[in-house]
Amino acid sequence: MPSDEMDQKTQERLVSIAMRWYDQMRESTIPSISLPTRTKQNIEFDDDSEVWKYGDRESVRSAHTAKSALHLLKMSYVISFLKTQLREKRSSTLRELYYISEGWKRAKFSAQDESNLLIEDLEILTDLQREAFHLRPEEDGATIFGPLRLKEMTRRGERVIHCQEDVGEAGYQIPSNVENIDLLEHDARFVIAIETGGMYARLIENGFDQDYQAILVHLKGQPARSTRRMLHRINEEFGLPVLVFTDGDPWSYRIYASVAYGAIKSAHMSELLATPRAQFIGVQPSDIRDYNLPSDTLTEKDVAALQSEISDPRFASEYWRTQIQLQLKLNLKSEQQAFAARGLDFVTKEYLPRRLTEMGILS
Amino acid sequence: MTLADELARQQRSISVAEFFEKNKHLLGFDSPTRGIITTIKEAVDNALDACEEARVLPDVFVGIKRTGSEVFRITVEDNGPGIIPAQVPFVFGKLLYGSRFHQIRQSRGQQGIGISAAVLYAQLTTGLPTLVISRTGPDNPASRFLLQININTNEPEVVEQSEVEWDRTHGTRVQIEFKSSMAAKKRLLEYLKYTSVVNPHARIRVELDDETYLFERVSDEVIACPQAIKPHPHGIEIGQLMRMLGAEGGSCGEFLVENFTRIGKKTAEEICRNAGIPPATPAASLTPAEQKRLLGAMQGVKVPAPPTQTCLSPIGEELITRGLEKEFQMDFVRSRTRPSSVYSGHPFLVEAAIGYGGKLPPDGNAQILRFANRVPLLYQQGACAITGCVAGVSWKNYNVSQAGLPTGPLLILVHVASTHVPFTSESKDAIAAIPEIEREVTLVLQELGRELKTYLSRRDKNRLQEDRARAVCSIIPEIAAKVAEIVDLPVPDTSAIEGRIMRKVVVKKMSRDGRVRLEVKNYTSQPGALTIYDISPDSGEGSDPKPAIVTELDGEHTKVWHVEIEPGGAWSAEYFGAGGGSLEIRGMPPEHVVVVDLDAQ
Predict the structure, then answer these.
(1) Which of residues 38-97 of A touch B (CB under 8 A)?
(2) Model pLDDT, residue B112
(3) Which of A136, A164, A191 is the last residue of a domain?
(4) Counting C-beta atoms within 10 Å of the first and last residue's C-beta, which end of chain B has fewer, N or C?
(5) pLDDT (tens digit, 9 = 90+) per residue, B283-326?
(6) Is the CB of residue B485 less than 8 Å away from at least one CB of chain A?
(7) Do A80 and B489 touch (CB under 8 A)?
(8) Last residue of a domain, which of A84, A111, A136?
(9) Whether A15 and A123 share a structural domain
(10) Is the ipTM of this complex over 0.90?
(11) Domains identified in chain A, total number
């Protein structure tokens, strides 16, 4: 959709929220709004799309309490601000929005979390992403490296970029609004999303992308929305398998789960962000045992996290059950870079090819 | 001559009047300012007692006029039964003469000292005799007396007696002149106000030099005069018993049955047996030792408490409340009458009330109104058992601050009614600390404290709700302004929404397609009644419901509807017309109504 048209649609949707309140007030009704309840209790695993979505529970925010009235007031200030921003073709960061609210007297936000949540509310109400409001997050997007050509609509014109040939050693930086990218072509067989920067750099240095025709994506811990959206699009548009390579501990399994199934905070857009077909490469608990990797013992919190994962529907498969139980039995965890104990080339020459063959990605 | 002889020459009997002269403070005449209050108090007490006995609604006049530089003329007049001429000199001119001293029932005056003490006081300070006019009925003429007391003999001296014309058909007027000052004017008015609170059936008119005050009655019910009862075996002392025995002609057993309440033949026999006196022994013949044994046996025997229904006359919860509401403006009043109880054989009961807020002073100690047998106690608050009990209750439990006494906009009324109120002294200013009475006072205060707490927490909750609603109402117009800016339309009127949030009655007028519609919604928690005046060129034709009245002036029709509306209810009317004009609402306080004229927007 051309961006002018998109902006027009976004404006209309935002204004329609205000119009609803306007009509309510004309009819002497206390203005209100209803939103899905955004708590863990109202997150459901959607079996069809295999992602996390909000359930049926809705909570009504009606201006009959001072707190809700203030929320509505803030929301109307934000809508007014976004409407102007869209009309003027400007954009701002979430952090900037927070500071802009300084001038809104009592509608000013008391913390950045509050403005972020309010923007998420608006995403739900308009069924649009925050990028459509010309809002972007503060953190820089993660990087990508591999045989992929794309076109980015930048403020200064279109740029066609090849993610191996036209970029430096760090790779191509994913912009906050992935919708501004057209994926043109690729020469890859699969995508590997990597948790740590150290391992991402190791694979680039070892030429893994060239040797195995792999697109490497750096997750930078819990991946930002844009990173997950990028993975989702590459998987959707090119049909390339997405593989997640993390540390071997319960927290890293959750990074995989958020790539594959979505997160609570953004459950309203799981269908856009999650990649249900993403697969987990490792580090698997069985790798710790089989390769005798250097390891640490599990902390109490690790054990509790593992135990809650056993009952988590996202890990409700034979594979995960076996692995988690094995880890509890070993009482050990290992980092990705523990493979270096067997030499710097071990991970690219031995471990990954063996795992990829096992998983049927390489033949 | 021995020293004893010398002393004997100085020993002689003292007349009661002489005693009084030396001990004025015991009877409440210790200072000229106090004397004026005591005099009025005694005279008004007598007037009220007399009216009560005659079962008439008291109409009491109190006049105070300065006749000399320090001389005041006190006049108290009532519409009571009057006093027969033969008795007048004794009632007013002899100390310790009265009808109620020997009766066991609740009454204001008791010893027959009060008013004659005032007569004596006048005599001592100005030398002027006291004027009394009394009439016992329309068929009898009124008698006018000028009286004095013989200080040596405590006998009345009639200076002058005559028959006079008097406009009252029955009643008594007493006029006393003595040296005093009006320094205690405030306290005097307080006394009359408090008297009026606990005597809601009385009308008291006061002329204080040139100012007049009226304490109007709020109840037309004549209060039942308490009936006298016989003494209770537990409530008698040796002297009284000896006197009664001396006057008895019959046997000991008959004496007990006939002269005491709650003693039957069996109990009498039991007392005699325990005292070791055969019941047939003539009562008058008992030796002092036997008399003492008899008293011991009487006090040791198990008998029911004396009957309290007839000898006590509580004011009652409703009348206390009405009496207080009449004289004080308060947000909350609650009264309690405790069941009657007994101390040392004397029946008594305690009533109390608590008032809060309104125009009571917001700071400082609570006002404590003490009463004994419907008489306000004005002096010696600190020495009174009632004050002790008030301070002894832990008021903080009832959300009332306390510094010894409770503090804040609080009024506490305590009335102790008894056949024998145990005062700390003859000036009858303070009630003695009798454990049984203290217990009852504490209990009633605690009961009322709990009710006050309920009221206070409800009030605080309502206040909180109102604060919250107000907070919301300050935000709503801002939302309206911002939203209007976004959608690029005029700012909507939010007063109806605010009315709803603030729990008011909202009246709306709107017109569309040749029809005008009026709507009333009651968001309050109370049923409402209001009158709508809709003034416009429309005649209100075809209105449903029809207006109660339609008037026309210069082409403007005033359409009037009377609307009664339940809490949460709605009412509407529709008629043909173009709308416009103006809307007026009457019958409800404006702060409870929001009018929204949508046509005017």
Answers:
(1) 63-66, 69-70, 72-73, 76-77, 79-80, 83
(2) 52
(3) A136
(4) N
(5) 888 888 888 888 888 888 888 877 776 778 788 888 899 888 88
(6) yes
(7) no
(8) A136
(9) yes
(10) no
(11) 2
Over 80: is that where the pLDDT of A175 sits? Answer: yes
Q: What is the DSSP letter of B525?
A: S
**A363 domain-assigned:** no
Range of A125's domain?
3-136
Strands (DSSP E) contained in B399-443 are 402-403, 405-406, 410-418
Q: What gap in Å lies between CA A353 and CA B52, rounded to an integer? A: 115
Q: Average pLDDT in the A50-79 region?
A: 85
Nearest by CB to A63, from B476, B506, B596: name it. Answer: B476
Packed helices B385-392 and B435-487: angle between N→C axes, nearest 10 degrees:
50
Nearest to A72 among B479, B486, B494 (CB): B479
Residues of B in contact with A81 (CB under 8 A): none
Token pair for B303:
């008998």
Q: Tokens 């939203």, residue?
A: B483
Residue A90 and residue A152 in one domain: no
pLDDT band at B575 (very low <50, low <70, confident <90, very high): very high
Q: Which of A10, A12, A22, A122 best tests the B interface by mutation, with the highest count of B CBs <10 A? A: A22
* DSSP per position, A288-305: HHHTT---EEPPHHHHHH
Is residue B478 within 8 angstroms of chain A, CB to CB?
A: yes
Count interface pairs A-B at CB distance under 8 A. 71
Determine the pLDDT at residue A200: 94
**CA A78 remoteness from chain centre:** 24
| Residue A25 contacts B where some CB pair is shorter than 8 Å | yes
Same-domain status, A159 and A118: no
A98 and A156 share one domain = no
Instruction: Please tell me the total number of residues recorded for chain A in this structure.
Output: 363
Supply the pLDDT for residue A2.
60
B499: closest chain A residue by CA: A28
Nearest neighbour of A66 by CB, restricted to B468, B486, B500: B468
